[in-house]
Amino acid sequence: MAKLSRAEITAKTIEIIHNCVPELQGVELTEASVVNTDMSMDSMSFIMVICKLEAEFNVKIPNRQWNKLKTLGQVVDAIEKYQKN
Amino acid sequence: MHKYLTFRELMEPWKDNFHPALIYSGGDDGHEPVRMSYSYLNEQILELSRKIKDAGIRREFMITDHRPETVIRLFACARAGCDVVLTDEALSEEMLFYLASVCGADSVYASDSDLEQAVRSHLGIPAAPPNPDAEPVPGAVPDPFAKKGREGRLIFFTSGTTSQSKAVVLSTRNLCLSAWSGQSMLPCGEGDVILSLLPLSHVFGFVCSMLWGLAYGAAIALGRGVRHMFDDCKYFNPTILPAVPSLMEILYRKQVLNKELRVVLIGAAPLSQEVTGALKAAGLKVYLGYGLTETSSGVAITQDLEDPYALAPCPDADIRIEEDGEVSVKTPCLMKGYIDFSTARPGVQAKVSNPAIDGRLYTGDLGFLDERGYLHLTGRKKDMLVLSDGTKIYRPECEGKLAQDLGTDDLALILRNGFPVLVVGTKDRKEDSGEIREHDRMVLDKFNESLARGQHIHYILYAETPLPRTATGKIRRWEFESV
Asked: Is B105 a residue whose pLDDT tops 80?
């Protein structure tokens, strides 16, 4: 899989979040949006989103990094960092 | 059905048992699960326990996961007389460093070698086991529960929602008796596969998805981690699944339960009626357990499948309802006590405490016993605010009504100098204005008309952010109650 651009990753990530978290459908998400908190999505939903993202982008984000990902931008940073060619 | 009192007794039958004890991942490439027999597990534990004993390790800080090596080490420590402080890899490094630094550990274990090394470095503990003849490691503290020849104790941190976490000391006797209690109410045995998805650092996870099964001959399927949470059922084909409500709900909604599953055991909170009904309609037996970390997990389990919230007391659990409706319990599974690690100093014992009175623990839960003697839970005592005039307000009721009238559930009723005060957060408030505050005041005045004078809510405090919450959505009151 060729490396995707940041814009492509961001767009796909937003799509996956909207699909996995019904409460966020219709909510505009930007890189500054805080996603990994109880206010935005519960811990189970966040796990599901990360699993979907890993499968979509063929990456494996170390488990210990998950809790450090707070904003959409940080999630995209992690995908870019661990993206394989 | 044998009532074991130590891990040694519990493991005695294992040496001649070649049925599977642990079932775990065969690898990431889709390999079939690997099975470890009771006999082999026994050998591994005993061999490691001898090494731990010879090394003189007294207290191990363990970052748990579901690898077989972790399970072996946990039992080996206890058999060697080494206490185990149980934490989870999901905790932040800062929290792990803090807990490791205060708990007086002279050994660290994590299957993630980088993480283990980081914690060791933080503590100044070398990788090699300590020399038992050497001077005590800085930070190690005398054992407040020392007793010669005993098995190691397991130390769990509670997951309080209305107060900060405490370190609960449970003996292997406490835990074995809890497993027996569970077996008395909900038998498992050879041929059963219990899927262990819950953290082993929580007493519900350790007792109900590990010890109970191992004590009575079931196989324990070790979950492959969060990435496989949605396909572990299909991979391991469990017959029994202990779970918390949030996990059960998402597994049900994702339709990932296997057809061999016959029993679901829910703990920590009640499962929704909708999901309970759906699971029962699918042919599953749904049991709800009630217990605390302090009681080594369950003291009551539902038995009447038609009445999913009526909890039958476990054998040996003496449950009583106090005058104010509080549930109290006397049980041989009651903890040895709390350790307040923050008070530990080199050479000085950490403060220990046990709130039980005459062996009876006052749980802080409210409930009643029906005509069968079954327990029904109705709320938390800490949800009752006791006012300066001695009267009480039941918080959930007041907060529920105010949430409806104010159009936000981002609020909490707290006490200030003995008087009730309402705190409102910004979750549902796009803006803050004089008009909104004036409206709030009118709503509050109207609400107060329904209360006795002494119970009037005095004023509203406006937070500048949404109110802090736990992972399950409960407001972290303790973070602002004392401010």
From this structure: yes
**Cβ–Cβ of B466/A39 closer than 8 Å?**
yes
- Give CA separation, B376 vs A4, B293, B321, B351, in Å: 55, 19, 10, 35
Q: What percent of chain B has a predicted confidence (pLDDT) above 90?
A: 56
pLDDT tens, B419-475?
789 999 988 887 778 888 989 999 998 888 877 666 788 889 999 889 988 766 778
Q: Tell me the domain boundaries of chain A.
A: 6-21+29-82
Task: Report residue B365 as tokens.
Answer: 């839960």
CA–CA distance, B343 with B341 (Å, rounded to integer): 5
Cβ contacts below 8 Å, chain A against chain B, sum to: 37
Nearest by CB: A63 against B89, B230, B471: B89
Contact B92 A51 (CB under 8 A): no
**Which residue has 């650092």 as its token pair?**
B201
Q: How far, in Å, are A2, A65, B6 from residue A72 at the CA level?
A: 22, 14, 49
Which pLDDT score is estimated for A1? Answer: 56
Overall CATH class of domain A6-21+29-82? mainly alpha
Considering only CB atoms, A43 lies closest to which of B89, B427, B471, namely B471
Interface contact flag, B246 A42, Cβ < 8 Å = yes
- Look at B471 and A47 and tell me if their CB atoms are within 8 Å: no
Phi (first) and psi of residue B443, to 5 degrees = -60, -40
Asked whether the beta carbons of B461 and B421 are under 8 A apart, the reply is: yes
Cα(B327)–Cα(B341) distance, integer angstroms? 28
Question: Cβ distance B125 to B148 under 8 Å?
Answer: no
**Closest approach of B466 to chain A, Cα-based (Å):** 8
Q: Which residues of B touch A43 (CB under 8 A)?
A: 246, 471
Residue type, B372: R
User: How many Å lie between the alpha carbon of A14 and the closest alpha carbon of chain B?
Assistant: 20
DSSP of B52-92, one letter per residue?
HHHHT--EEEEEE-S-HHHHHHHHHHHHTT-EEEEEETTS-
Predicted TM-score of the model (pTM): 0.80
- Tens digit of each residue's pLDDT (9 = 90 or more) over B57-102: 999 999 999 999 999 999 999 999 999 999 988 777 888 888 888 8
pLDDT tens, B209-258?
Answer: 999 999 999 999 999 988 888 899 999 999 999 998 878 988 998 899 99
pLDDT over threshold 80, residue A60:
yes
- How far apart are the CA of B321 and the nearest CA of chain A, in angstroms? 34
A42 contact residues in B (CB cutoff 8 A): 246, 471-473
**Residues of B in Cβ contact (< 8 Å) with A67:** 90, 92
Q: Do A38 and B473 touch (CB under 8 A)?
A: yes
Q: What residues contact B34, with CB distance under 8 A and at least 6 apart?
A: B23, B24, B25, B26
